[in-house]
Amino acid sequence: MPVFGIRDGKFTSHYSRTYVEAAQLNPDVPKMSDAQWEALDLLADVCQELHTAHDFEPGEMQILNNHVVYHARDAYEDAEHAEGKRLLYRLWICPAVNRALPHGHEVLWGNIDANSLRGGIEFSG
């Protein structure tokens, strides 16, 4: 899957080093060049430099668009006692009205056409 793409004038990016490394184990996937690995290293460095961090407080919510925002979670050490344990829900929402994704992204998202259900929970607000 391409890291960057444009379709209908809209930019999309999806980067997961783990996905790239796993794909390299597949003999049908073209091998990455040194320059491509360096480009991914630079992307990771820029993301690290420009990132913002958020510590969640009870009751807070964060909504992200996976097609234009990179996100990650730091390692977390949970409390030993039940009253201090973290409770984090992840909800995947797919709005009924959404944009088309670039060709090549169907590997992860399935249907890349506009207004298509791409996993998660269907929402028609």
Structural write-up:
The radius of gyration is 18 Å and the shape is globular. The chain has one domain (4-123). It has helices at residues 17-23, 34-50, 106-109, and strands at residues 4-7, 10-13, 93-95, 121-123. It is α+β, with helices and mostly antiparallel strands and 125 residues long. 22% of the residues lie in helices and 11% in strands. The strands form two sheets. The chain has a two-stranded antiparallel sheet.
Label this structure with key terms.
4 strands, 3 helices, alpha+beta, globular, two-stranded antiparallel sheet, 125 residues, two-stranded parallel ribbon
Q: Using only CA atoms, what is the Rg?
A: 18 Å
Mean pLDDT: 88
List segments where confidence is low: pLDDT < 50 over at least 5 consecutive residues. Answer: none
Q: What coarse outline follows from CA principal-axis ratios?
A: globular
What does the main sheet amount to?
A: 2 strands, antiparallel
Strand order of the largest sheet: 1-2
- As a percent range, the share of strand residues is 5-15%
Termini gap: 31 Å
Percent helix: 10-25%
Q: What structural class is derived from the secondary structure elements?
A: alpha+beta
What is the number of beta strands? Answer: 4
String of helices and strands? EEHHEHE
Counted up, domains total 1
List the helices and strands and how they pair.
Elements: E1 4-7, E2 10-13, H1 17-23, H2 34-50, E3 93-95, H3 106-109, E4 121-123
Parallel strand pairs: 3-4
Antiparallel strand pairs: 1-2
